[in-house]
Design a protein that fits this description.
DNA recombination (chains A, B), about 45% helix, Recombination protein RecR (chains A, B), alpha/beta, Helicase, Ruva Protein, domain 3, about 220 residues, two-stranded antiparallel ribbon, Dna Topoisomerase Vi A Subunit, Chain: A, domain 2, homodimer
Chain lengths: ~220, ~220
């Protein structure tokens, strides 16, 4: 409370400084104090750095498009992944957002395509099924363009709800569905794993020979 | 090392996204992962927010000036503090940077003016006396425009060195010099104070009546 009060009456000595701090502190996880530190840092750097940052931010909003097929970030109407002829378009991995695509792409283990929902059903945050790109996913299944759907949402209450909601809609089309494997992370110690994860990893154990097939 | 490697080959799906992340991660304390989070947040916000941020950053570099007298940040050639006729121009408080001015101004306890050095002497970081605005400070003293100099640099090796360097140069003019009081913070518990601070607070104890004069 005390620190908060101190900051309310902050004298920034310049309205341009104050403005920059206010705009910067709109970003998530950046408070006024951090914003001030960042802005004063920029002030010490050559003008080119600030201009490049400003330019990059403007370009971000004006130039970036979203793939018409999978809703991934893209510079073109159809993203690189959906355009890749080497990929199996009939296997679709459902993820929450772009970062999940990047994470999975980084593993180089997946050769199907994606479908980005843009979030998960969360009544508390005011996100309903209508706010997510579920209709276009169901349409893909309906058109018979899908062999397998991989659910890769986070295993939270919201993630599970979203999985179930989608599952109910595509159930009748009798396609293969799967979820990514949950278990003890590679290299993790058993004693530090939580009970739910450890329990599932025993229930969903895999044949030993499978574990030898790394990559 | 693993996380680092993972990020080097990150597939951003868009060169505009990658560019924005790279520029954002130039800021101190913002890594690629945080930069990505911030940039994806901006992507979800209305375009006006990004434009406002970009505009504020450009304005920052083009519009902000530094006060010709005290080197404080200012929208004008002479800053508000130096222009304030209510303030005693003959008492100068020497501080490292603009944030220190803001912190002291916030207390509303100081009615003199400031002199911002722009750092402290630190050979390790390649900062010598020539990189700081010491000459202009000595000139003020030389011209007889100063009654008292208050040293308010941080009490580190570098801060003490800088204080001493300045002191040596203005010693001969026989003006009053002081440093801000070091001691146990108001509201702090004695048992958690470090020995040096507690030791100094006993050595530099003040008459009890003084403690009654709060503000």
């Amino acid at each position: 409370m005390y620190i908060f009060c101190t900051f309310v009456g902050m004298n920034y000595a310049s309205k341009y400084l104050e403005n920059a701090v206010n705009e910067m502190s709109q970003l998530p996880g950046i408070g006024k104090r951090t914003a001030l530190r960042l802005v004063l840092h920029l002030l010490k750097q050559p003008e080119s750095q600030t201009t490049a940052l400003a330019r990059a931010l403007v370009d971000l909003k004006t130039e970036i498009r979203f793939c018409k097929q999978c809703h991934n970030i893209s510079d073109t109407d159809i993203c690189e992944i959906c355009n890749d002829t080497q990929r199996n378009k009939k296997i679709i991995c459902i993820v929450e957002d772009v970062r999940d695509v990047m994470a999975i792409e980084n593993t180089s283990q997946y050769k199907g395509v994606y479908h980005i929902l843009g979030g998960k059903i969360s009544p508390i945050d005011g996100v309903g099924p209508g706010d997510l790109s579920i209709t276009s996913l169901v349409k893909k299944v309906e058109e018979g363009a899908v062999d397998e759907l991989i659910f890769a949402l986070s295993s939270t209450m919201e993630g599970d709800t979203t999985n179930f909601y989608i599952y109910k809609q595509i159930e009748k089309y009798n396609i293969k569905t799967s979820t990514i494997a949950r278990g003890i992370g590679v290299g993790d110690e058993l004693e530090y794993a939580d009970e739910v994860t450890l329990g599932r990893s025993i229930l969903h154990r895999v044949p030993f020979e499978n574990s030898l097939k790394v990559n």
